[in-house]
């Protein structure tokens, strides 16, 4: 069971990391100052996730550690008027709360995708959430 879970996590990391790197390279092409910095950070994060997935598929202990870190990076969803952060590699199942009156809970899911958001500023109505897929993947990686 452990092997199947690790392979599934590794496949999602490799696919999401590769797809994310391609899109970040595409974002780098116009060489705009602000967007290029964010794209370079995204490129480094996706490269890290890709390498972690490859090492996990090779059944490396370093791959298990790096994949744990990669899943923790994908865990939070923060979208506030001051700061926004989200990272998805391979898919997500988000449970989030919209923090305006009245507060609302929401659920969003998508597989075979990637996303990277790092911004100063964000939506007027703040959203805070957690990626359940990343949480379950991180917990599965803790199985020894």
Automatic annotation (TrEMBL):
Keywords: Membrane, Transmembrane, Transmembrane helix. The keyword Transmembrane applies. The chain crosses the membrane at residues 5-26, 38-57, 69-95, 115-141. It comes from the Bacteria. This is Uncharacterized protein. The lineage of its organism: Bacteria, Pseudomonadati, Pseudomonadota, Gammaproteobacteria, Lysobacterales.
């Amino acid at each position: 069971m452990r092997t199947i879970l690790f392979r599934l996590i590794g496949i999602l990391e490799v696919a999401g990391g590769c797809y994310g790197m391609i899109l970040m390279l595409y974002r780098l092409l116009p060489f705009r100052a602000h967007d290029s910095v964010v794209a370079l950070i995204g490129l480094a994060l996706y490269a890290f996730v890709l390498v972690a997935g490859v090492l996990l598929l090779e059944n490396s202990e370093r791959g298990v550690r790096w994949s744990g870190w990669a899943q923790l990076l994908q865990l939070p969803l923060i979208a506030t008027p001051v700061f926004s952060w989200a990272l998805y590699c391979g898919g997500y199942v988000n449970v989030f709360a919209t923090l305006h009156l009245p507060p609302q809970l929401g659920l969003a899911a998508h597989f075979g995708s990637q996303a990277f958001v790092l911004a100063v500023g964000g939506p007027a109505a703040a959203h805070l959430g957690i990626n359940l897929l990343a949480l379950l993947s991180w917990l599965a990686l803790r199985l020894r």
